[in-house]
Known about the structure:
Layout: H1 2-10, E1 16-23, E2 30-37, E3 43-52, E4 55-56, H2 60-65, E5 75-76, E6 83-84, E7 89-96, H3 102-113, E8 117-124, E9 130-134, E10 141-143
Antiparallel strand pairs: 1-2, 2-7, 3-4, 3-6, 3-8, 5-7, 8-9, 9-10
Amino acid sequence: xxxxxxxxxxxxxxxxxxxxxxxxxxxxxxxxxxxxxxxxxxxxxxxxxxxxxxxxxxxxxxxxxxxxxxxxxxxxxxxxxxxxxxxxxxxxxxxxxxxxxxxxxxxxxxxxxxxxxxxxxxxxxxxxxxxxxxxxxxxxxxxxxxxxxxxxxxx
Length: 155
């Protein structure tokens, strides 16, 4: 019975990856933060959080305000409480030259590379086996359960 249960769980195993993509072509710079399910099963997203120097952010507006004194245009997709299918890639955040000042984009990129701007995702399989990944610890860590997304969180 235990072997059958383990086989069933393995057949729907999700594996999420949190990626930063930086395109440094002069004049068409772009930064994306992506969530990719490279597993063989769907991932139920329970919570996505981003932090600046360890302080939880409420959303991308707050994150951008840390790096820009003026307005910055960007696109984002909120995936908390959604299901990400196998092989699905979701761009959580994106901005490019022409929308956002290049110095702001470089500051965001540097903050991510240096671990000042970090992210965490808690997700579960269809059988409610749960994991947590972070930008600092990209290998999934098993957790008993995932906390609910904070009220009003934009991620």
